[in-house]
Structure formats: structure tokens, C-alpha cells
Design goal:
Elements: H1 2-17, H2 34-37, E1 50-59, E2 67-78, E3 86-99, E4 104-119, E5 123-137, E6 168-185, E7 188-197, E8 219-230, E9 234-245, E10 248-260, E11 267-276, E12 280-289, E13 292-301, H3 306-309, E14 314-323
Antiparallel strand pairs: 1-2, 1-14, 2-3, 3-4, 4-5, 5-6, 6-7, 7-8, 8-9, 9-10, 10-11, 11-12, 12-13, 13-14
Length: 340
């Protein structure tokens, strides 16, 4: 365990000294955390007035301390009655991530706004902007370093000689994105989006600027998805997600399939299968009743990490509740959607 602790500790500490691309929060169910993916998703929910969501993820439970990531988020429409062919979306999200033996903790809050404009009868263009604040903290006393090895064990009484200046660092963060949706028919829908995170490249380091003035590199994300109704019983949702940060790439491809169980779409079985390139196979199952959707997935490790964690990957839970305000009852939807 001491060797594992040493390796994880060194990895966690070298990340802030570099560019930090490995620190961004992420969920396998990225489509159930829309504000984290793209601020232009804020308020993009044609059938409803608002959404509330929660996500929880725990991973690598066989290697050192588990990584735990949690989020709460919500968004709503504004001015839908004032703009004939568009609306404004506003939202907010709160994220918390804890990882490793040093209790590296990240707490972030974001606010986002987007404008959605209809283009003709079957297209929608959306643009969004987000502003966030992040605070990261680490408990240095829980970490061991190579020069504290006395030949038999790690001796905490030996000075580490690491140039720490802070145990906490904070910064503001900027992001922006664009979305385009095309509603070909009542049975076919297409959506694509791009976003840029960390536009201002904030400084993130536990060391003095004279030692390390590391900046978080910008993260570029693109996604494509579609809804296809099949024989009024299934709605199939193929997805492709690609993200680049520094030299790190993440690619996820797969699909969801919703099965109508009640004949009116109020109860649905959700099945899904995804693959994260060179990392994990991700089966998913869920259930939707009325306007609440609950989904769970398991990341089965297929990378070299599987030899260390016994192929045990991550578990993830997502809950999303959508709704309509009483004042909106009877108001028509401005753009078509694929529904049962």
C-alpha cells in the first residue's frame, strides 16, 4: 500500500505542475450533465421549462482511495413569451471532486446563459457563455515523497523538501459554446455542438509562481447525437463525444435506446452501451417515469489499468427531473421534438 500511495501521491502532485488537463471533471453520462459539456446547452429542452439534475460517480475503488465526483445542476427558460422565435436559457451548476490519498478536493460553481434562435421551421441555433469559480485543496500531510523513503518505509518525520507554497488554490474560469439542432421530421432529430473551456487559461498550482506558473490548457469539445423513432416503440439515440485538452484526447461513442412501456411515453425503459476509446466499455440501464429519468452505468476497464484495479472501473448514477411551470400550461412548443 505504501508503494501505491507513493505513486498516486506523486501523480497528483505533478499534475498541477504541468498543464492540468487530467483534472477536468467528467462523467461517462456526459449527456446527463449538459451544462458541464457546453454552456449552449443551457435551457435547451424544447418540451419543458426547467430541468434539475444530479450526478454521482465513484471510480478506481480497487486502487488506493476511491475517486468521487458529484454534481448538482439546473436550468430554465426565460422570455419564451417575449421572443416569437427564440428564448433565453439560464442555469447554474455545482461540482465537487475528491481524489487520492492527499484528499485532493475540487469544488466548482458555474453560472451560464444561452440564447436559442429558431431558423425557419425546423432548425435551431444556440450560443452560450459560462463563468465559474473553482477552488482546489490538498492535505499535504497525507502524502509521502521519494526522499522520505528510509530504505524500509516512508518516514513522515523526514522533510519532503517539496516547494509547496499553498494547500489551496482558486481561480475564475470562462467557457463558451455553440449548438445546432435540425428537426428533419417527427421521427428524426439531429444535434451537434462545440465548446471551449478554460478560455482564460487560469493559473492552477500549489507552488509559488516563481517555481511554477502552470496554466490550465483550453479544453475543446465536440459532440454529435440524433434521436430516431423506430415503429413507435423505441427512440434510439446514437452519440459521439470528443474532447481534447493539451495532448490528452477523450472519445466516447455509443447509444441509448428508450422503450415505451405505457403506450403514451410516460414510462420508459432505457438501455445504453458506450465505449471510451482505449479505456472502458460502459453499459447503462435506466427508467423514466413521467418527467423523471434515473440511469446508472458501470465503466468496465479495458485499458492497462485493469491489471491494477482488477478490471474494476467506475459506477455512476444520474437523476434528471424536467418540468413545466403552471403558467406555461397549454403553451405550444416552439420547435418540434421526437417523442412517443
Amino acid at each position: 500500500m505504501n508503494c501505491i500511495r507513493k505513486i498516486i501521491g506523486i501523480l497528483l502532485l505533478t499534475i498541477p505542475m504541468g498543464y492540468g488537463y487530467a483534472q477536468d471533471l467528467h462523467f461517462s453520462q456526459y449527456f446527463n450533465s449538459p451544462l458541464l459539456v457546453n454552456p449552449a446547452n443551457t435551457g435547451f429542452n424544447p418540451d419543458y421549462d426547467y430541468r434539475l439534475g444530479g450526478n454521482y460517480r465513484t471510480e478506481s475503488t480497487n486502487v488506493g482511495n476511491p475517486y468521487k465526483t458529484m454534481s448538482l445542476w439546473g436550468d430554465t427558460k426565460l422570455f419564451a413569451n417575449r421572443f416569437e422565435n427564440g428564448w433565453v436559457g439560464v442555469g447554474a451548476s455545482l461540482f465537487r471532486d475528491q481524489a487520492g490519498p492527499g484528499s485532493l478536493t475540487n469544488t466548482s460553481g458555474f453560472a451560464s446563459v444561452a440564447y436559442h434562435q429558431l431558423l425557419g421551421y425546423n432548425s435551431l441555433l444556440s450560443g452560450g457563455f459560462g463563468l465559474g469559480f473553482s477552488s482546489k485543496r490538498i492535505d499535504i500531510s497525507k502524502l509521502s515523497f521519494d526522499n522520505q523513503w528510509n530504505g524500509k518505509f516512508f518516514d513522515a518525520s523526514i522533510p519532503s523538501n517539496e516547494p509547496f507554497a499553498y494547500s489551496q488554490t482558486s481561480y475564475f474560469d470562462l467557457q463558451m459554446g455553440l449548438n445546432y439542432a435540425y428537426f428533419a421530421s417527427e421521427n428524426l432529430y439531429f444535434n451537434a455542438g462545440v465548446s471551449v473551456m478554460h478560455i482564460n487559461m487560469p493559473r492552477e498550482s500549489f507552488f509559488d509562481p516563481t517555481v511554477s506558473d502552470s496554466r490550465i490548457q483550453r479544453r475543446y469539445t465536440a459532440f454529435i447525437n440524433s434521436n430516431i423513432k423506430v415503429q413507435n416503440l423505441w427512440i434510439v439515440n446514437p452519440n459521439l463525444y470528443v474532447s481534447k485538452m493539451g495532448n490528452a484526447w477523450e472519445t466516447v461513442i455509443g447509444f441509448n435506446a428508450n422503450r415505451d412501456l405505457s403506450g403514451d411515453g410516460l414510462q420508459q425503459l432505457i438501455l445504453g452501451l458506450y465505449y471510451r476509446n482505449k479505456d472502458a466499455v460502459i453499459p447503462m440501464i435506466g427508467y423514466q417515469v413521467n418527467d423523471m429519468r434515473i440511469t446508472v452505468n458501470y465503466d468496465a476497464t479495458v485499458s492497462q489499468l485493469g491489471s491494477f484495479n482488477g478490471t474494476r472501473g467506475a459506477y455512476e448514477l444520474s437523476i434528471v427531473k424536467s418540468g413545466v411551470f403552471p403558467s406555461s400550461a397549454g403553451r405550444g412548443v416552439k420547435c418540434p421534438t421526437v417523442r412517443f
